[in-house]
Write a structure and sequence with these properties.
The complex is a heterodimer of chains A (123) and B (353). The radius of gyration of chain A is 19 Å and the shape is globular. Chain A is α+β, with helices and mostly antiparallel strands. Chain A is built from 6 helices and 3 strands. Chain B has 3 domains: 70 residues, no CATH class; 79 residues, no CATH class; 163 residues, no CATH class. Chain B is elongated, with a radius of gyration of 36 Å. In chain B, 8% of the residues are buried. Chain B has a two-stranded antiparallel sheet. In chain B, helix 1 packs antiparallel against helix 2, helix 5 packs antiparallel against helix 6 and helix 5 runs antiparallel to helix 13. The two termini of chain B are 56 Å apart. Classes of the chains: A alpha+beta (123), B mainly alpha (353).
Chain lengths: 123, 353
């Protein structure tokens, strides 16, 4: 892996980390257990490794953003997760932040050159 | 491709989960493994119903490989932990740098001053110098240990331990240090007249120095009368010292003349200054290496030894101590100058790239 690729990979992971948390919280407005949650996210175009998702669920639960319960389904005991009350509040605040960042980035990208580089015209 | 029997596949899954369990936090092992098993079994079932057959040995291996090495999988369930977290880290680096600097200074003083006084052999000095890296490593280890322990206590017992808000919260812009003057870049350049005057004064100074042995009153003034009646006499080592001082003076005059001829008198070269400091150490080292640390002796030892012998030892020891301190100061200054030169060179290289 070249230095540029490694830099890109690090930045990509950094960018993805927060987005994945947001997506998981959003998806858990409905109850899911680990595997079906992963499938749902993949169906919406967000692939996530098992070894990333399952520990993330635990962490979010420890932080009080998710609640969980063991229940039998299809003759197998599974741990189902759902967004907690606190999780709902945090999710709506995170979504507002995400939308604001997204809008700003799009505005920067769409801005005409003279707006982003005031010196350009002078030169 | 061979297909594993249901029992073989389940045994491999059990072995995988057993391996993961070994690296999990003790009190959550059962819970995590049960959840992991349920998810993995569902995934296997799903894959098999999609394929309409059971997984082959290779597919099963791939599935486990994709899950990740047991140690890596288990490590993701561990709480995120730092040896020294981002809040404490800037403070840690600051304290570490300060402590290492002071430990280095103390080691140098011990090696250059204390050791020669208590155990005057060269071997003892070298031994003291060789102890320095070990002492620096120990210092760094202790500071790291203290900060790591504090970080551990702070994260593990947040209610008991005082919480540090980080450097960002409690700083005041008015406490910022004043701008540092960079003599090399911002210092006022020397004028031609100044450079010529420096050479003239250096030559006059050298002339004055050369006359001192013949006319000691040029250095001592009326005190020269005391020298004549004093029972003490300077040791021959001072002639060697004097020779080096004269040589140094000549070298400096030559270097200044070369600067003038090359038109580079405006800013003295930093490397040249450091080179002069290094050479300037030689006369001091010559004195420190004086045989028996004898700098003065009695003109008439047969008569005065009993009366003044003890005083003589004290005078010689005091002179040796004085020059040891001077040597230590010059060495520290030299180390500081070299460090500054290296960091400036590094900064300018980084700036260019």
């Amino acid at each position: 892996m070249t230095v540029a690729e490694s830099t890109f990979e690090n930045l990509r992971l950094e960018l993805r980390r927060g987005c994945l948390t947001l997506a998981v919280l959003a998806q858990l407005k409905q109850e899911h257990y680990g595997y079906t949650l992963r499938k749902e996210l993949a169906e919406h175009g967000l692939e996530i490794d098992e070894s990333t998702l399952y520990p993330l669920l635990r962490r979010l639960e420890t932080q009080g953003l998710l609640t969980s319960q063991w229940r039998e389904e299809e003759k197998r005991n599974k741990r189902f997760y759902r967004l907690s009350l606190e999780g709902e509040q945090i999710l709506s605040r995170l979504l507002a932040e995400w939308n604001s960042i997204n809008t700003s980035v799009l505005r920067i990208l769409d801005a005409p050159k003279s707006e982003t580089a005031p010196d350009a015209e002078a030169k | 491709m061979p297909r594993p029997s249901k029992d073989t596949a389940m045994e491999l899954l059990d072995r995988y989960l057993q391996a993961v369990r070994k690296y999990l936090p003790l009190r959550r092992q059962d819970d995590i493994i049960a959840e992991l098993r349920a998810n993995m079994e569902s995934q296997i079932e799903d894959s098999e119903s999609e394929l309409g057959r059971s997984l082959t040995q290779g597919e099963f291996d791939d599935f486990l490989r994709k899950m990740g090495h047991p140690m890596v999988v288990a490590s993701r369930y561990q709480p995120q932990q730092y040896l020294i977290g981002p809040t404490m880290f800037p403070m840690y680096v600051y304290v570490l740098r300060l402590a290492l600097l002071w430990a280095f200074i103390v080691c140098m003083i011990v090696a250059a001053v204390v050791t020669p006084l208590t155990n005057g052999t060269g071997g003892a000095v070298v031994e003291a110098l060789f102890r320095t890296p070990g002492i620096l490593i120990q210092t760094a280890a202790w500071i790291t240990l203290v900060f790591a322990a504090f970080e551990f206590a702070r994260t593990r017992y947040p209610n008991v331990c005082p919480q540090i808000e980080g450097l960002n919260k409690s700083w005041n812009p008015s406490t910022l240090p004043p701008l540092e003057k960079d003599s090399l870049r911002e210092g006022k350049p020397r004028s031609f007249a100044q450079a010529v005057a420096e050479i003239i004064f250096s030559v006059l100074f050298l002339g004055w120095v050369l006359l001192i042995p013949h006319y000691p009153f040029l250095l001592l003034g009326p005190g020269v009368a005391i020298l004549h009646v004093s029972p003490y006499q300077l040791a021959p080592i001072w002639w060697t010292f004097f020779g080096w001082i004269v040589a140094l003076g000549i070298m400096q005059i030559v270097a200044k003349c070369i600067d003038l001829a090359r038109g580079s008198w405006e800013r003295p070269s930093r490397i040249q200054q450091i080179a002069f400091k290094i050479v300037g150490l030689i006369p001091v080292l010559v004195l420190l290496a004086a045989p028996g640390h004898i700098y003065v002796f009695l003109k008439n030892s047969a008569v005065d030894q009993a009366r003044l012998g003890q005083n003589l030892d004290q005078v010689n020891n005091a002179i040796h101590l004085g020059f040891s301190v001077i040597c230590a100061i010059v060495v520290l200054q030299l180390a500081f100058d070299i460090g500054k030169l290296v960091s400036e060179g590094y900064r300018s290289r980084e700036g260019r790239s």
